[in-house]
Specification:
Elements: E1 5-9, H1 12-24, E2 29-33, E3 47-51, H2 59-75, E4 80-84, H3 97-108, E5 113-116, E6 124-127, E7 130-133, E8 136-137, H4 156-163, E9 168-171, H5 173-177, H6 180-192, E10 197-200, H7 205-214, E11 220-223, H8 231-234, E12 252-257, H9 262-272, E13 277-279, H10 282-285, H11 290-299, E14 307-310, H12 315-325, H13 327-347, E15 350-356, H14 358-368, E16 372-380, E17 383-388, E18 391-396, H15 405-413
Parallel strand pairs: 1-3, 1-4, 2-3, 4-11, 5-10, 5-11, 9-10, 12-14, 12-15, 13-14, 15-18
Antiparallel strand pairs: 2-16, 6-7, 7-8, 16-17, 17-18
């Protein structure tokens, strides 16, 4: 069957966030891990989310992978493509959001795309083109100290234009509140000025539903998962009520946390007070048997208790680690070890796994050889349980979830 909606996500946690949003709104969704090929089956899916690990790789490679995914989606007849980036616009002056957006604009034949990373349920709002994280502008939030993509500007228009070949304009909240027709008129005015992107304000879910009505016929939409909040209703799925099903995997529970966000550090502190926990540092990760030693330790813990292995650290510790090993190299070293640990422990019967951090999630799923997942019920806004053969897995963006996220997640399976 032809797909209604295709999505290309620049990391794995963001992909599950979007897939969960679409599932809750009534769509049959399949999430594919990595680039699909001609043999990839979509079954009865109405939407497919292709999860790439392209947020921090070279811009040219991010573009290549995204275009390959779009070619595959187009061959399956998608009506609309979403380029899903992080709700905090994680990127650098070189990309990768701008270069990928430009490439997809051309590949889809679109002459314009709406851009909106708002996700009010998780405190991501846009007003006057400024992205807020909770009550703070992006550049004043903890994202200013992100180890790979420190965000030092809060203006989405400036951030996007620094990376893109095209100009962007603003669709103000007053216009959004005036309704879909007003948004469409503003889009036409921006296009007449030669602009190719429109950054839309949104501070409530209702604003996102208005935007969905305004762009339901657009070939390309760019933003966070919230930008898709109203799209299934536009496809005639407003009355569907089927609830997602929890994954049925049995076995031991494992938490792997690589994110250094404030939220994840709070969550690991709570979990470490409850269950066996071991911290992985970059120095320890250089040891030749680091992964095996950690896996042996985890397997030796009481079987009834979850086990946590984490590398989460405060900004000062991260800076010191990067100074010693290099910014990209330090993160890659940790991710490789956590991926190896996940593979080893899964073979030993750890079949319920919670992962914190986008890059870490990519490393873990790649190490496990998972190629597709089905979306289950939501643990916290933007974070669903997912199922793969013999595995229940939750992929949490670093900034998502409350302080007790890990115990909440595992408690659902009990």
């Amino acid at each position: 069957m032809s797909l209604l909606l295709g999505a290309i996500a620049d990391d794995f946690t963001g992909a599950t966030d979007l897939a969960g949003t679409l599932t809750r709104q009534g769509m049959k969704v399949l999430q594919i891990i990595g680039l699909p090929d001609d043999g990839t089956e979509t079954g009865d899916a109405e939407a497919v989310v292709v999860a790439l690990k392209s947020r921090t790789i070279a811009p040219s490679e991010a573009v290549r992978q995204s275009l390959s995914a779009q070619t595959w989606l187009r061959a399956r007849g998608v009506r609309q493509t979403i380029f899903k980036h992080c709700s905090t616009f994680d990127s650098t002056a070189q990309g990768n959001i701008g270069p990928v957006a430009d490439a997809l604009l051309a590949a889809t034949g679109a002459d314009f795309s709406l851009v909106c990373p708002a996700l009010p349920a998780n405190g991501r709002t846009v007003y006057q083109g400024v992205l807020f994280v909770g009550d703070e502008p992006l550049a004043e939030s903890p994202m200013k100290d992100h180890p790979l993509t420190p965000m030092r500007d809060s203006s989405l228009i400036r951030l996007l234009e620094a990376q893109s070949r095209h100009r962007a304009g603003l669709i103000r909240l007053q216009t959004v509140r005036a309704g879909a027709a007003a948004v469409r008129a503003r889009i036409e005015a921006l296009k007449a000025m030669g602009l190719r992107y429109g950054v839309a304000d949104a501070i409530e879910d209702g604003d996102l539903h208005v935007l969905a009505r305004a762009i339901r016929d657009h070939p390309l939409v760019i933003g966070g998962s919230g930008v898709a909040l109203g799209l299934p209703a536009e496809y005639g799925m407003a009355d569907r009520t089927a609830a997602p099903v929890l994954p049925a995997a049995r076995g031991r529970a494992l938490i792997l946390a690589g994110s250094c966000s404030t939220a994840t550090r709070q969550q690991t502190a709570r979990a470490a007070a409850l269950w066996p926990a071991r911290k992985l540092t970059a120095d320890a990760a250089t040891a030749s048997h680091a992964a095996r030693e950690l896996a042996d330790w985890a397997a030796a813990q009481p079987a009834a208790a979850p086990v946590m292995i984490y590398s989460s650290a405060d900004p000062q510790e991260v800076a010191a680690m990067q100074a010693r090993y290099g910014r990209a190299e330090a993160g890659a070293l940790i991710e490789r070890i956590l991926g190896d640990v996940a593979r080893d422990l899964h073979r030993r019967g750890f079949n319920r796994i919670v992962v914190a951090g986008g890059e870490t999630s990519g490393a873990v799923l790649s190490a496990l050889g998972v190629t597709a997942i089905r979306i289950g019920p939501e643990i916290a806004p933007g974070v669903p349980w997912c199922a793969a053969p013999g595995l229940a897995i939750a992929l949490k963006s670093g900034n998502f979830g409350g302080p007790d996220f890990f115990s909440d997640a595992l408690g659902m399976l009990e």
